């Protein structure tokens, strides 16, 4: 009994010591409507728990980049993205802050929306990162990227896009869709595989984007076909539609391939 | 039968006494550990910008905080056995709690020295070799599996997303696999030298 209890206690302590540190980012999403002249003031709080008791966090405001998989990537705004950027009128203070267990660090994002801001959406990313934990061969660091998506109230919001690339095979279809509008939105995709007689032999769907696609960014929809039977030799057509979350069809493309 | 019951009772009492002794010895420590575990993420009352102290600044302009994500990274890997001629694999767990749709990406933020490759360092100081350090030929690969993992190896050459979800999660444990291919042409480390890298896990609410 004694030995069992000692082993249990040891395992409990080992369990605590083997867990890494956890960081909690609060206020890590800013999505709202603003008007020219509005003052923006928003806080992002970082708290720490786990092995580490103290660390320095470093933050900054960056351009809103997106990978084809929806990953937010902090980078300098491209020329194409600059008209939709909020980086120029936002500032994060402080740039460095100490976070301790039980004593969170607070970053403040501030700015004033320019009077001549224009229409549509304005975007930026706040990145806050911390130093590597541990001294192993593979060190681990934690960070967050907080998306900032501002909608300019009372302006024309253009939510449009086009299929910029379409690759098909008997197994599936890859579609790259680009936001050509001035405002962010979510979309899903559908594909139908048809034979030479226009009979649908397989369909596939890609779910609604888990995050919004900002202007100028592109998204990759991968859809697999699961036909009931192996495709017979012949010519096949694939029709793809990208659909706004409100149900509007944003673009449709079709292409053919041979089996 | 009466003797047996009496023996069982004496045995039970003895075990309870031992339990009580052990609790005296370990109980305080366990309670302390449990308290630290539970109190860790708690917020305090108020704080100045950039300082510790806890809580939210009373901004009073209607900008309520939204979007909370907690990420607990895999522990660092102290001894990654790098065997030539094979893909060397280590495993870990990433834990995510988020109140909305979320994603996690991996990257190597050190473009100047490592750039996605394990790089020669001094095992005594922990510092990278300053002058032309050796690097393993292949980029490190990171993969997340389970319900929310993409199941695809992401090269740290560019980094990328490894897991995502369109809904909130609580204490979701995501298996992580680190793969480092090592070829026979990679240089064997000299004495007191080794290869290392730092991987950044970036969490984001949608």
Summarize the structure in words.
The complex is a heterodimer of chains A (259) and B (206). In chain A, strands 2, 4, 5, 7, 9 and 10 form a 6-stranded mixed β-sheet that branches. Chain A has a 4-stranded antiparallel β-sheet with strand order 1-3-8-6, with no helix packed on it. By secondary structure, chain A is mainly β. Chain A has one helix at 2-18, and strands at 22-26, 30-34, 39-49, 54-66, 72-75, 90-93, 96-100, 105-112, 121-129, 138-152, 161-168, 172-179, 187-194, 200-206, 218-224, 235-244, 249-258. Chain B has 206 residues and is α+β, with helices and mostly antiparallel strands. Chain B folds into 2 domains: 1-40; 69-205, Immunoglobulin-like (Sandwich), CATH 2.60.40. Chain B is built from 1 helix and 9 strands; from the N terminus they run αβββββββββ. In chain B, strands 1-2-8-5-6 form a 5-stranded antiparallel β-sheet, with no helix packed on it. The longest helix of chain B has 38 residues, at 2-39. The radius of gyration of chain B is 25 Å and the shape is elongated. Chains A and B meet through helix 1, strand 1, strand 2, strand 3 and strand 7 of A and helix 1, strand 1, strand 2, strand 7 and strand 9 of B.
């Amino acid at each position: 009994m004694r030995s069992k209890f000692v082993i249990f206690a040891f395992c409990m302590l080992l369990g605590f010591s083997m867990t890494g540190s956890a960081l909690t980012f609060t206020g890590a999403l800013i999505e709202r409507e603003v008007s020219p002249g509005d003052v923006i003031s928003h806080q992002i709080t970082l708290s720490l728990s786990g092995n580490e008791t103290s660390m320095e966090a470093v933050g900054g405001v960056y351009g809103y980049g997106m990978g084809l998989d929806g990953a937010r990537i902090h980078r300098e705004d491209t020329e194409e993205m600059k008209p939709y950027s909020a980086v120029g009128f936002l500032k994060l203070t402080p740039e460095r802050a100490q976070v301790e267990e039980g004593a969170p660090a607070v970053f403040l994002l501030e700015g004033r929306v320019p009077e001549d801001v224009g229409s549509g959406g304005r975007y930026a990313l706040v990145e806050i990162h911390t130093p590597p934990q541990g001294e192993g061969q593979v060190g681990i660091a934690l960070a967050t990227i907080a998306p900032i998506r501002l909608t300019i109230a009372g302006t024309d919001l253009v939510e449009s896009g086009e299929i910029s690339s379409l690759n098909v095979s008997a197994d599936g279809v890859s579609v790259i869709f680009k936001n050509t509008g001035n405002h962010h939105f979510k979309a899903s995709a559908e594909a139908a595989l048809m034979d030479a007689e226009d009979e649908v032999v397989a369909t596939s769907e890609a779910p609604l984007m888990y995050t919004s696609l900002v202007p100028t960014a592109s998204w990759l929809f991968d859809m697999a076909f699961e036909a009931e039977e192996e495709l017979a030799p012949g010519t096949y057509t694939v029709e793809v539609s990208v659909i706004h979350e409100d149900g509007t069809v944003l673009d449709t493309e079709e292409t053919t391939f041979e089996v | 039968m009466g003797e047996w019951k009496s023996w069982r009772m004496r045995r039970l009492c003895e075990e309870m006494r031992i339990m009580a002794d052990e609790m005296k010895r370990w109980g305080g420590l366990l309670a302390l550990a449990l308290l630290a575990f539970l109190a860790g993420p708690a917020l305090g009352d108020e704080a100045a910008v950039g300082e510790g102290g806890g809580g939210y600044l009373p901004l009073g302009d209607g900008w309520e905080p939204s979007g909370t994500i907690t990420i607990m990274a895999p522990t660092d890997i102290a001894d990654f056995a790098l065997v030539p001629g094979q893909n060397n694999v280590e495993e870990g767990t990433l834990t995510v709690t988020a109140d909305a749709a979320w994603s996690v990406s991996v990257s190597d933020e050190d473009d100047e020295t490592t750039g996605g490759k394990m790089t020669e360092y001094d095992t005594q100081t922990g510092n990278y070799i300053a002058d032309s350090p050796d690097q393993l030929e292949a980029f490190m690969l990171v993969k997340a599996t389970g319900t929310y993992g993409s199941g695809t190896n992401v090269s740290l050459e560019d980094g990328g997303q490894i897991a995502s979800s369109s809904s909130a999660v609580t204490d979701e444990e995501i298996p992580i696999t680190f793969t480092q291919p090592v070829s026979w042409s990679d240089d064997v480390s000299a004495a007191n030298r080794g290869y290392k890298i730092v991987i950044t896990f970036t969490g984001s609410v949608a």
